[in-house]
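WP5 quarterly update. Target: Porin. Source organism: Mesorhizobium cantuariense. Length: 364 aa.
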Amino acid sequence: MNIKSLLLGSAAALIAVSGARAADAVVVAEPEPAEYVKICDVYGAGYFYIPGTETCLRIGGYIRYDASFGDGNRVLDGTKAIDSQDGGINDTWNKNARFTLKTWTGQETELGTLKTYTETRFNFGSVTTAKGADGFAIDSEAGNKAADLHFAWIQLGGLRVGKDETAYDSFIGYAGNVVQDTIIPYGLKDTNLISYYFDAGNGFSAVASLEEGSGAETIDSYVPHVVGGVKYKGDWGAITAVGAYNSNWEEWAGKARLDIKATSDLTLFAMVGYGTDDNKATNFYKPWTGNFAVWGGGTYTVNKKVQLNAQVSYTDFQDFAVAANVAYTIVPGYTITAEVDYFKNFDDKFEDGVGGIVRFQRSF
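C-alpha coordinates (predicted):
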Protein backbone atom coordinates (compact mmCIF):
# COMPACT_ATOMS: atom_id res chain seq x y z
CA MET A 1 0.00 0.00 0.00
CA ASN A 2 1.50 3.31 -1.01
CA ILE A 3 1.03 6.74 0.51
CA LYS A 4 -1.55 7.74 -2.15
CA SER A 5 -3.79 4.76 -1.41
CA LEU A 6 -3.53 5.39 2.34
CA LEU A 7 -4.60 9.02 1.97
CA LEU A 8 -7.55 8.16 -0.28
CA GLY A 9 -8.71 5.49 2.13
CA SER A 10 -8.50 7.83 5.10
CA ALA A 11 -10.46 10.54 3.27
CA ALA A 12 -13.19 8.07 2.35
CA ALA A 13 -13.48 6.93 5.96
CA LEU A 14 -13.75 10.49 7.22
CA ILE A 15 -16.46 11.29 4.67
CA ALA A 16 -18.45 8.21 5.68
CA VAL A 17 -18.23 9.06 9.41
CA SER A 18 -19.15 12.68 8.75
CA GLY A 19 -22.14 11.60 6.64
CA ALA A 20 -23.33 9.27 9.36
CA ARG A 21 -23.16 12.03 11.99
CA ALA A 22 -24.98 14.44 9.71
CA ALA A 23 -27.69 11.87 9.16
CA ASP A 24 -28.02 11.43 12.91
CA ALA A 25 -28.27 15.20 13.55
CA VAL A 26 -30.99 16.04 10.97
CA VAL A 27 -34.23 14.16 11.51
CA VAL A 28 -37.10 15.13 9.21
CA ALA A 29 -40.43 14.34 10.87
CA GLU A 30 -43.24 13.02 8.76
CA PRO A 31 -45.93 15.67 8.17
CA GLU A 32 -49.01 15.51 10.37
CA PRO A 33 -52.21 14.76 8.49
CA ALA A 34 -54.12 17.99 7.83
CA GLU A 35 -57.30 18.43 9.86
CA TYR A 36 -59.80 20.23 7.69
CA VAL A 37 -62.96 21.92 9.00
CA LYS A 38 -65.84 19.47 8.84
CA ILE A 39 -69.46 20.37 8.26
CA CYS A 40 -71.84 19.65 11.15
CA ASP A 41 -75.42 19.29 9.94
CA VAL A 42 -76.91 17.99 13.20
CA TYR A 43 -78.19 21.43 14.31
CA GLY A 44 -79.00 22.93 10.92
CA ALA A 45 -77.20 24.84 8.18
CA GLY A 46 -74.03 26.81 8.86
CA TYR A 47 -72.52 24.72 11.66
CA PHE A 48 -69.01 23.22 11.53
CA TYR A 49 -66.93 21.21 13.98
CA ILE A 50 -64.36 23.15 15.96
CA PRO A 51 -61.13 21.27 15.03
CA GLY A 52 -60.13 18.71 17.63
CA THR A 53 -63.49 18.79 19.43
CA GLU A 54 -67.00 17.38 19.16
CA THR A 55 -68.49 20.88 19.47
CA CYS A 56 -70.32 22.37 16.50
CA LEU A 57 -70.07 26.14 15.95
CA ARG A 58 -72.04 28.57 13.82
CA ILE A 59 -71.15 32.25 13.32
CA GLY A 60 -73.62 34.75 11.89
CA GLY A 61 -75.19 38.14 12.31
CA TYR A 62 -76.29 41.15 10.33
CA ILE A 63 -75.42 44.71 9.35
CA ARG A 64 -78.36 47.09 9.45
CA TYR A 65 -78.98 50.72 8.56
CA ASP A 66 -82.18 52.47 9.67
CA ALA A 67 -83.39 55.90 8.65
CA SER A 68 -86.56 57.09 10.38
CA PHE A 69 -88.54 60.28 10.00
CA GLY A 70 -91.51 62.10 11.51
CA ASP A 71 -92.78 60.65 14.77
CA GLY A 72 -91.21 57.26 14.24
CA ASN A 73 -89.34 55.46 17.03
CA ARG A 74 -91.94 56.30 19.70
CA VAL A 75 -93.70 54.04 22.15
CA LEU A 76 -96.55 54.73 24.58
CA ASP A 77 -95.51 54.24 28.20
CA GLY A 78 -98.74 55.18 30.00
CA THR A 79 -98.01 58.83 30.58
CA LYS A 80 -96.72 60.17 27.27
CA ALA A 81 -95.07 59.05 24.06
CA ILE A 82 -91.35 58.54 24.60
CA ASP A 83 -88.41 57.85 22.33
CA SER A 84 -87.42 54.24 21.78
CA GLN A 85 -83.84 53.07 22.32
CA ASP A 86 -82.85 53.21 18.65
CA GLY A 87 -82.86 56.94 18.13
CA GLY A 88 -83.95 60.42 19.08
CA ILE A 89 -86.77 62.44 17.55
CA ASN A 90 -86.27 65.80 15.88
CA ASP A 91 -87.26 67.59 12.70
CA THR A 92 -84.92 65.66 10.45
CA TRP A 93 -83.94 62.10 9.68
CA ASN A 94 -82.80 59.89 12.55
CA LYS A 95 -80.25 57.28 11.57
CA ASN A 96 -78.79 54.20 13.18
CA ALA A 97 -76.19 51.76 11.89
CA ARG A 98 -75.82 48.41 13.68
CA PHE A 99 -73.44 45.48 13.48
CA THR A 100 -74.68 42.37 15.26
CA LEU A 101 -72.47 39.33 15.85
CA LYS A 102 -74.11 36.00 16.75
CA THR A 103 -72.64 32.65 17.75
CA TRP A 104 -74.28 29.28 18.32
CA THR A 105 -72.70 26.07 19.62
CA GLY A 106 -74.07 22.57 20.04
CA GLN A 107 -72.71 19.29 21.40
CA GLU A 108 -74.35 16.00 22.31
CA THR A 109 -73.71 14.75 25.86
CA GLU A 110 -75.02 11.98 28.10
CA LEU A 111 -77.30 14.60 29.73
CA GLY A 112 -78.71 15.89 26.46
CA THR A 113 -77.75 18.59 23.97
CA LEU A 114 -75.40 21.27 25.32
CA LYS A 115 -76.08 24.57 23.55
CA THR A 116 -74.95 28.18 23.84
CA TYR A 117 -76.06 31.36 22.12
CA THR A 118 -74.56 34.86 22.15
CA GLU A 119 -75.58 38.07 20.41
CA THR A 120 -73.68 41.35 20.71
CA ARG A 121 -74.88 44.58 19.11
CA PHE A 122 -72.80 47.64 18.21
CA ASN A 123 -74.62 50.85 17.24
CA PHE A 124 -73.75 54.22 15.76
CA GLY A 125 -76.52 56.72 15.22
CA SER A 126 -78.76 59.47 16.52
CA VAL A 127 -78.45 60.17 20.25
CA THR A 128 -80.87 62.52 22.01
CA THR A 129 -79.18 65.65 23.36
CA ALA A 130 -82.19 67.77 24.35
CA LYS A 131 -85.89 67.28 25.11
CA GLY A 132 -88.79 69.69 25.18
CA ALA A 133 -91.20 70.37 28.01
CA ASP A 134 -93.46 67.55 26.83
CA GLY A 135 -90.63 65.03 27.14
CA PHE A 136 -90.11 64.64 23.40
CA ALA A 137 -86.61 64.86 22.00
CA ILE A 138 -86.04 68.08 20.07
CA ASP A 139 -82.38 67.67 19.18
CA SER A 140 -79.97 64.82 18.57
CA GLU A 141 -76.52 64.13 17.20
CA ALA A 142 -74.76 61.11 15.72
CA GLY A 143 -72.37 59.08 17.85
CA ASN A 144 -71.35 55.66 19.08
CA LYS A 145 -73.64 53.99 21.58
CA ALA A 146 -72.85 51.48 24.27
CA ALA A 147 -72.37 47.89 23.08
CA ASP A 148 -75.35 45.69 23.92
CA LEU A 149 -74.81 42.11 25.10
CA HIS A 150 -78.28 41.03 24.08
CA PHE A 151 -77.94 37.28 24.60
CA ALA A 152 -75.40 35.08 26.42
CA TRP A 153 -76.91 31.82 27.67
CA ILE A 154 -76.03 28.16 28.19
CA GLN A 155 -78.59 25.37 27.88
CA LEU A 156 -78.15 21.70 28.79
CA GLY A 157 -81.16 19.62 27.93
CA GLY A 158 -84.08 21.83 28.90
CA LEU A 159 -82.25 23.93 31.52
CA ARG A 160 -81.14 27.41 30.38
CA VAL A 161 -79.14 29.93 32.40
CA GLY A 162 -77.69 33.33 31.53
CA LYS A 163 -78.66 36.57 29.79
CA ASP A 164 -81.77 36.24 27.62
CA GLU A 165 -85.00 37.94 26.72
CA THR A 166 -87.70 37.19 29.26
CA ALA A 167 -89.62 33.99 28.51
CA TYR A 168 -92.75 36.13 28.85
CA ASP A 169 -91.86 37.52 25.38
CA SER A 170 -89.66 34.92 23.70
CA PHE A 171 -91.95 31.94 24.37
CA ILE A 172 -95.09 33.58 23.02
CA GLY A 173 -93.37 35.50 20.20
CA TYR A 174 -93.06 39.03 18.91
CA ALA A 175 -96.08 41.05 17.78
CA GLY A 176 -95.67 40.64 14.04
CA ASN A 177 -92.98 41.28 11.44
CA VAL A 178 -93.15 45.07 11.53
CA VAL A 179 -90.12 47.14 12.51
CA GLN A 180 -91.95 49.15 15.18
CA ASP A 181 -93.81 46.28 16.85
CA THR A 182 -93.74 47.94 20.30
CA ILE A 183 -95.51 51.25 19.69
CA ILE A 184 -97.85 49.76 22.26
CA PRO A 185 -95.33 47.61 24.15
CA TYR A 186 -96.14 44.00 25.04
CA GLY A 187 -93.22 43.30 27.39
CA LEU A 188 -89.75 44.40 28.40
CA LYS A 189 -87.02 42.05 27.36
CA ASP A 190 -83.55 42.01 28.95
CA THR A 191 -82.96 39.84 32.02
CA ASN A 192 -80.74 37.25 33.65
CA LEU A 193 -82.73 34.09 34.20
CA ILE A 194 -82.90 30.40 35.02
CA SER A 195 -85.44 28.69 32.75
CA TYR A 196 -86.58 25.16 32.03
CA TYR A 197 -88.09 24.22 28.68
CA PHE A 198 -90.16 21.07 28.22
CA ASP A 199 -91.03 19.62 24.81
CA ALA A 200 -93.35 16.62 24.75
CA GLY A 201 -92.62 15.95 21.07
CA ASN A 202 -96.29 15.92 20.10
CA GLY A 203 -96.73 19.67 19.59
CA PHE A 204 -97.06 20.46 23.30
CA SER A 205 -94.33 22.48 25.06
CA ALA A 206 -93.98 24.48 28.26
CA VAL A 207 -91.57 26.81 30.07
CA ALA A 208 -90.94 27.94 33.64
CA SER A 209 -88.57 30.82 34.32
CA LEU A 210 -87.10 32.63 37.35
CA GLU A 211 -85.97 36.10 36.26
CA GLU A 212 -84.02 39.06 37.60
CA GLY A 213 -85.53 41.81 35.47
CA SER A 214 -83.44 44.81 34.43
CA GLY A 215 -83.08 48.54 34.98
CA ALA A 216 -85.53 49.90 37.53
CA GLU A 217 -87.39 46.57 37.35
CA THR A 218 -84.45 44.53 38.71
CA ILE A 219 -85.57 42.43 41.70
CA ASP A 220 -85.08 44.20 45.02
CA SER A 221 -85.12 41.10 47.26
CA TYR A 222 -84.26 37.39 47.16
CA VAL A 223 -87.63 36.69 45.51
CA PRO A 224 -87.33 36.49 41.69
CA HIS A 225 -89.89 37.41 39.09
CA VAL A 226 -91.67 34.24 37.91
CA VAL A 227 -92.85 33.35 34.39
CA GLY A 228 -94.67 30.26 33.12
CA GLY A 229 -96.08 29.33 29.73
CA VAL A 230 -97.69 26.55 27.69
CA LYS A 231 -97.99 26.08 23.93
CA TYR A 232 -99.59 23.72 21.44
CA LYS A 233 -98.32 23.85 17.86
CA GLY A 234 -99.73 22.09 14.81
CA ASP A 235 -99.70 22.34 11.03
CA TRP A 236 -102.53 24.89 11.27
CA GLY A 237 -100.65 27.26 13.59
CA ALA A 238 -100.28 27.53 17.37
CA ILE A 239 -102.00 28.58 20.57
CA THR A 240 -99.87 29.96 23.43
CA ALA A 241 -100.38 31.39 26.90
CA VAL A 242 -97.90 32.94 29.34
CA GLY A 243 -98.24 34.40 32.81
CA ALA A 244 -95.89 36.40 35.02
CA TYR A 245 -95.57 37.58 38.62
CA ASN A 246 -93.60 40.76 39.33
CA SER A 247 -92.10 40.31 42.80
CA ASN A 248 -91.14 43.99 43.17
CA TRP A 249 -94.67 45.30 42.80
CA GLU A 250 -96.65 42.13 43.56
CA GLU A 251 -98.47 42.50 40.24
CA TRP A 252 -99.67 39.79 37.82
CA ALA A 253 -99.83 39.83 34.04
CA GLY A 254 -100.59 37.39 31.26
CA LYS A 255 -100.88 37.08 27.50
CA ALA A 256 -102.64 34.60 25.19
CA ARG A 257 -101.95 34.26 21.49
CA LEU A 258 -103.41 32.49 18.46
CA ASP A 259 -101.36 31.97 15.28
CA ILE A 260 -103.10 30.71 12.14
CA LYS A 261 -101.68 29.61 8.80
CA ALA A 262 -104.63 30.82 6.74
CA THR A 263 -103.04 29.82 3.43
CA SER A 264 -99.58 28.84 2.24
CA ASP A 265 -98.88 32.56 1.70
CA LEU A 266 -100.80 34.18 4.57
CA THR A 267 -100.19 33.92 8.33
CA LEU A 268 -102.28 35.74 10.92
CA PHE A 269 -101.96 36.32 14.67
CA ALA A 270 -103.98 37.79 17.51
CA MET A 271 -102.65 38.41 21.03
CA VAL A 272 -104.39 39.76 24.12
CA GLY A 273 -102.75 40.89 27.36
CA TYR A 274 -104.14 41.57 30.81
CA GLY A 275 -102.36 42.79 33.92
CA THR A 276 -103.10 44.20 37.35
CA ASP A 277 -102.13 47.75 38.29
CA ASP A 278 -102.96 47.89 41.99
CA ASN A 279 -99.48 49.05 43.05
CA LYS A 280 -98.00 50.40 39.81
CA ALA A 281 -99.58 51.51 36.54
CA THR A 282 -97.00 49.78 34.34
CA ASN A 283 -94.24 47.29 35.08
CA PHE A 284 -91.82 44.79 33.56
CA TYR A 285 -94.58 42.40 32.47
CA LYS A 286 -97.37 44.92 31.84
CA PRO A 287 -95.75 47.88 30.10
CA TRP A 288 -98.96 48.81 28.26
CA THR A 289 -101.42 51.36 29.65
CA GLY A 290 -104.66 50.25 31.28
CA ASN A 291 -105.42 46.63 32.12
CA PHE A 292 -106.15 45.17 28.68
CA ALA A 293 -104.24 45.36 25.43
CA VAL A 294 -104.65 43.61 22.08
CA TRP A 295 -102.35 43.16 19.10
CA GLY A 296 -103.20 41.62 15.75
CA GLY A 297 -101.76 41.38 12.28
CA GLY A 298 -100.20 39.15 9.72
CA THR A 299 -97.74 38.53 6.90
CA TYR A 300 -98.61 37.95 3.26
CA THR A 301 -95.89 36.54 1.01
CA VAL A 302 -96.45 37.97 -2.46
CA ASN A 303 -93.54 36.05 -4.00
CA LYS A 304 -89.99 34.99 -3.12
CA LYS A 305 -88.88 38.60 -2.96
CA VAL A 306 -91.82 40.57 -1.54
CA GLN A 307 -93.61 40.37 1.84
CA LEU A 308 -96.37 42.58 3.21
CA ASN A 309 -96.55 42.94 7.02
CA ALA A 310 -99.02 44.75 9.26
CA GLN A 311 -99.90 45.17 12.94
CA VAL A 312 -102.77 46.92 14.75
CA SER A 313 -102.77 47.40 18.55
CA TYR A 314 -105.07 48.95 21.16
CA THR A 315 -105.39 49.32 24.95
CA ASP A 316 -108.33 50.05 27.22
CA PHE A 317 -106.51 53.30 28.02
CA GLN A 318 -107.54 54.21 24.44
CA ASP A 319 -104.05 54.00 22.96
CA PHE A 320 -104.17 52.96 19.32
CA ALA A 321 -101.35 52.17 16.86
CA VAL A 322 -100.89 50.85 13.32
CA ALA A 323 -97.70 49.74 11.58
CA ALA A 324 -97.41 48.44 8.01
CA ASN A 325 -94.48 47.73 5.73
CA VAL A 326 -93.26 46.22 2.49
CA ALA A 327 -90.12 44.07 2.71
CA TYR A 328 -88.25 43.50 -0.54
CA THR A 329 -85.40 40.99 -0.73
CA ILE A 330 -83.08 42.23 -3.47
CA VAL A 331 -80.85 39.16 -3.31
CA PRO A 332 -80.82 36.37 -0.70
CA GLY A 333 -79.62 37.84 2.59
CA TYR A 334 -80.22 41.49 1.67
CA THR A 335 -83.63 43.03 2.41
CA ILE A 336 -84.95 46.59 2.24
CA THR A 337 -88.06 47.40 4.32
CA ALA A 338 -90.17 50.54 4.05
CA GLU A 339 -92.66 51.13 6.88
CA VAL A 340 -95.26 53.69 7.93
CA ASP A 341 -96.38 53.99 11.60
CA TYR A 342 -99.27 55.78 13.29
CA PHE A 343 -100.32 56.20 16.91
CA LYS A 344 -103.03 58.09 18.79
CA ASN A 345 -104.73 58.27 22.16
CA PHE A 346 -108.47 58.68 21.59
CA ASP A 347 -108.86 60.43 24.94
CA ASP A 348 -106.88 63.29 23.32
CA LYS A 349 -104.12 63.14 25.92
CA PHE A 350 -101.56 62.79 23.14
CA GLU A 351 -101.18 64.29 19.73
CA ASP A 352 -101.50 62.06 16.71
CA GLY A 353 -98.17 60.73 15.54
CA VAL A 354 -97.21 59.67 12.03
CA GLY A 355 -93.75 58.50 11.04
CA GLY A 356 -91.87 56.00 9.03
CA ILE A 357 -88.66 54.07 8.72
CA VAL A 358 -86.56 52.62 5.92
CA ARG A 359 -84.38 49.65 6.88
CA PHE A 360 -81.50 48.12 4.92
CA GLN A 361 -80.32 44.79 6.34
CA ARG A 362 -77.69 42.29 5.21
CA SER A 363 -77.97 39.06 7.19
CA PHE A 364 -75.37 36.32 7.13
